Amino acid sequence: MTQPQALPNHVGIIMDGNGRWATARGLSRNRGHQKGAEVFGQIVRHAQKRGIPYLTVYAFSTENWNRPPEEVGGIMNLLRSYLRDADKYRKENVAVSVIGDKSRLDVDLVEMIAKLEEGSRHNTGIHLNIGLSYGGRDELVHAARQIAAMAQAGSISPQEVDHSLVERCLYTAGQPDVDLIIRTGGEQRVSNFLLWQGAYAEFYFTPTLWPDFTPADFDAALEEYSRRERRMGGILP
User: Fold this and answer.
1) Which range marks the domain in which residue 23 is found?
2) Which of 81, 167, 171, 230 has the most Cβ atoms closer than 10 angstroms to its Cβ?
């Protein structure tokens, strides 16, 4: 009898290659981001169809603020369009969280994000985390500041600081660690993505640029994951 495929509980995706995809076609980098946004929607729906409980995507990093203003503005306008179409998440049963430093975002975006998160909070399908103005190091600093404030207030002692407390202070509090991180575009590095949550993640690198990434490519990553032996620092029986 064929054994059922072992699926990850939580998948992270570093969606890399939008700009290179556009440049290769003589298009603007923002056109690549537009195509990438279309692929993003397809992959979220496919991941839900495959039964993945949690999906975290790296949409815009803390370092991406250093890109040319016109490119940053184009990405933010894409996000606005995406958020305006938020009703689809109620229909598709997707719960959405936006993780990252929202203090750098325009006020209208922050308000739209809050509306989306609240409106989808009770959905019971896939939980989608969108990393926006997100960086793994910044997330850990954010968590450390919360813990320091607790200690200063006298609500915890230094001896009470443990893994569980740190996890409760992360943007992904209450969610399982990432099992599989997919990176498109041919690069093979983590790029400040889910540094704590991905401590024991399996990595899957593909040369496929994100705008060319298909549900079949996602399935190939899941298939590869199912063949990995996950020892988590131990020894398999």
Assistant:
1) 10-135+178-225
2) 171
Any domain includes 159 = no
9 is catalytic: no
| DSSP letter string, 5-62 | PPPPSEEEEE---HHHHHHHTT--HHHHHHHHHHHHHHHHHHHHHHT-SEEEEEEEES
Tokens coding 3 = 């054994």
Q: Is residue 4 part of a domain?
A: no
Q: In this predicted structure, what is the pLDDT of residue 231?
A: 67
The pLDDT score that the predictor gives to residue 1 is: 35
Tally the domains of the chain: 1
Catalytic residue among 16, 177, 179, 217: 16
Instruction: Write down the catalytic residue from 9, 30, 64, 93.
Output: 64
Active site residue 64: yes
CATH of the domain at 60: 3.40.1180.10
**Can you tell me the distance from the alpha carbon of 199 to that of 219, in angstroms, rounded to the nearest whole number?**
23
Q: Residue 63: inside a domain, yes or no?
A: yes
Whether the pLDDT of residue 90 is over 60: the answer is yes
Q: Residue 202 falls within a domain, yes or no? A: yes
